[in-house]
Amino acid sequence: MVNKKITSIDDLSAKDIQSIADLALKFKKSTKSSIQKKSKNIFNLFLEPSTRTTVSFELAAKKLGHNSININFEKSSLSKGETFNDTMDTLISMKPDALIIRDKNNFSPRNIVKKHNIPVINAGDGTNEHPTQAMLDYCLIKEIFRNRKIKIGICGDIKHSRVAHSNIKLLSKTGHEVHVIAPSYFLNKDEIKKINNKVVFHKNLNSIKKLDILMMLRVQKERIPKGSKNMMTSFKRDFCLRSKHLLNMPYLMHPGPVNRNIEISDEVLDNYPKSLILRQVEMGVYLRMACLKYILK
Ligand code: NCD
Question: Most buried of 145, 244, 266, 278, CB within 10 angstroms?
C-alpha cells in the first residue's frame, strides 16, 4: 500500500483539500469525543523553533487518542553530532505510525518519504513549504466566506516564506484571487509565477483596494543573508501595517510569530477588530486532527 503524505500542497488534489477542510470544520463543531478506535504512535521531530505548530500537532494527536512523541534538536542526538540520516534511521526503526517533521533544509520531508515507508507530514521545511499552515488558513477562509471566491493579499518576506509558497499554491488550486505585496528584495517574481501565473503583484500597501483578506508574513530574519539588516529597516519603514492602510477593513491574518512594529504596528495588532490571528491558531488544532486522520487511514 502507498502511504499518504503531506510534504507539499502538490501532494493534495483540490478534492483532498476540500475533504480535509470539511473534516477540520466538523471536528471544530462537534461536541462528541473524537477518540479513534486504534491508538497510533506519532513522532513530532521539530528541528527549528515552534510554538503554535508543535503544540497544535501534539494536542491534535491527543484529542484523537494517539500517542504523541516529541523530539527537538536540543533533546536529540543531532545536538551531539549525529547525522540527520542516522537520526532518521534510528527513529524509523522504532516503527512510528507517522512522522511530523520541521527542518531548516528544503525538501527533507520529501526525501524521508523517498527513503522510508512511512506517512509523513511537513510542518515547515526551510523556505520551501508549510502545507498545514496554508490548509488551516484555508479552513478559516471557508468558515467565514463559505464557497465565495475571495481576493486575498499576501504581504511580506515572500522570498523566504514557506507559508507564502504553500498558500499561493493552495489558493490557486481552490480558485481564489491572489495579490502579492512585497518589495523587490523580498520577492522572486519568476518563482511565484511558476507556482501561480495568475498572481497580481503590488509594490506597496496603498495600491490595494477591496481585498477581503490581508495576510501579513514575518520577515524571516534567520534566513536573510548576513549583512542585509537594512532590509528589516526598509521593510519596517515602507510596509509596517498601520490603521491608515486598513480603511477598507479587510480581515487580517498572520501565521505568527509576529515581529511587532516590523510587519504589524502595535496599534493594529492590539486593536484591529477584524484580526483573525488567534482564530488561525485555534483552527490549527482541528486542521491538524483532520490531517492526521487523512494520513493514518
Ligand atoms: C511559520 C513558520 O514556521 O513557517 N510559523 C508557523 O508555523 N505558525 C511562519 C514564520 O515563522 O514566520
Answer: 145
